[in-house]
Amino acid sequence: MIVKNEENVIDRCLNSVKNVVDEIIIVDTGSTDNTVAKAENLGAIVYKFKWIDDFAEARNYSFSKATKDYILWLDADDILEDDDVKKLEELKVNLDQSVDSVMMNYVLQVDKYGNSIYSLKRNRLVKRSRNFRWIGYVHEYLEVYGNIIQSDINIVHKKDKEYTSRNLEIYEKKISSGIELSIRDILYYGNELYDNGRYDDAIEQYVKFIKTKQGWVEDVKTACYKLADCYMYKNDKENELKYILKSFEYDVPRADFCCRLAYKFLEENKLEVAIYWYRLALNSAPKDASASLINHEVYTYLPWIQLCVCYSRMGNMEEAYICNEMAAKYKEDDEYVKNNREFLKDKVNLSLGE
After folding, report:
1. Domain Glycosyltransferase 2-like spans what residues (predicted)?
2. In this predicted model, what pLDDT tens digit does every residue of 52-106 receive, in sequence order?
3. Contact call for residues 245 and 277 (beta carbons, < 8 A)
């Protein structure tokens, strides 16, 4: 792990894994709180690293201090739940030594029922002898190859700190010093501009990224989605629609784009067209092996609850009720589900009685 001023979460993270890992290596990049003391109290070996605005360098340094056959990396605001600790224990016992990397689910957000809303896959457990390297000043990635296997182990991200402009500042320092951004960094620089509300600047970077024609297809689709967002915030509906549709140039329609397009038709009261796109979202599925961000609700709850609205507006109360009950399978106590039930109850009974 690399850390800085994580005293509020370091105990939570290390306590969740300390009984399953064989050593804990912490690289501190300049903490001024009790992070180091807390880590050492939980058995961690702590090294100091002078921060140089480069996450990859810090992570590579942390990897250089590991001594065991495999390295598991975490962030301070990550945890493993008990069930996933058990899965990791089983993996330790049964892992074939020919495996170079194990991908795990990175759960970025859960709903109140504990269901994953956003997740992606990450190479989380890697063979030390392969000397895999981290790449990227910001939004660094681990360059992994060889025998890579999938696991169903979840690592849950429990973000504790407020969002800052730190990453944007790092990118702009690099640019001002004359460093040319990589193709991948162009996308992530765009994301930082977007997150800081600089939509025109973000649009410029996303378009630049797409025009390289060298980006990973999932990243290109992400750029299209972010462009649609930027134009939505600028109230430019024509260009918003343009980039929703442009995503279809690269792959079969992804559920998030289907739901977004469906909602535009719902707003225009083109209900049959909206139903078509919501149904298409339900009939699609995320790519299991993909490292791209997955919004699980656009494949499940969201299209069902919106189909309820569509059918209700069309006067088909029975179908609206069925769709609402399908949404309830994912969120039983959801306010929209409960309100829809109340609204539809008498109408469905009346219709059936006729």
Report:
1. 1-94
2. 999 999 999 999 999 999 999 999 999 999 999 999 999 999 999 999 999 999 9
3. no
pLDDT digits 0-9 by tens, 234-255: 999 999 999 999 999 998 999 9
CA pair distance 129, 136, nearest whole angstrom: 21
Residue scoring higher pLDDT (246 or 113) = 246
Strand partners, 157: 78
> Could you tell me if 227 and 190 are in contact, meaning their C-beta atoms sit under 8 angstroms apart?
no
Same domain, 189 and 148: no
Long-range CB contacts for residues 139-142, cutoff 8 Å, separation at least 24: 139/55, 139/167, 139/185, 139/188, 139/191, 140/55, 140/56, 140/59, 141/184, 142/59, 142/73
What's the Cα-to-Cα distance from 233 to each of 150, 197, 204, 269, rounded to whole Å?
38, 9, 15, 22
Provide the number of structural domains found in the chain: 2
